[in-house]
User: What shape does this take?
Amino acid sequence: MNEKLNNQRQNFRVAALLPLEVHKVPKHMAGDLSCELLEALEPAESGPMPVTSGSDEIVQWMNALSQKLDKIIALLQTERTFSEASALRKCQVSISTSGMSFETREPYNTQDILGIKTMLTIQNHPVPMQLYGQVVYADRVGDRNKVAVNFIGLGEDLQNRIAHFVLQREQEMLG
Assistant: This one.
């Protein structure tokens, strides 16, 4: 019984409007794919600067400067991420930790492997990611194609981030 409840929670889906770029992965590249966070500028480690000489005031000033530079880098990263995401087409999706479904003009077939570039916003922070999924459902609906994929190569970190996004969306819908 507990296992059934865990599976239901793990696969809970929410609707969301996400920036999305989808492409078919060529068969020769589909062997060992891993979902990943997209490149981000990492702030330098905060802490004591390796100043070997000088007064305590200089060391404090250098540490304060380092912290300010970390904040500037974080702001630039956020701006760059939102700029890149705004270039992606917004798409209504249904997402869970196991996969997602969406509509597209491009036809895909069951068993195709798709690369999906998207960005989730978690606690007001953009989280750009490259996901991979195997098509488990594909159907033509008018001039659109309804596609559902199961994620492949999704590590625990990304799975937890998606779960956090799903719970956040659920709270937004209830609140």
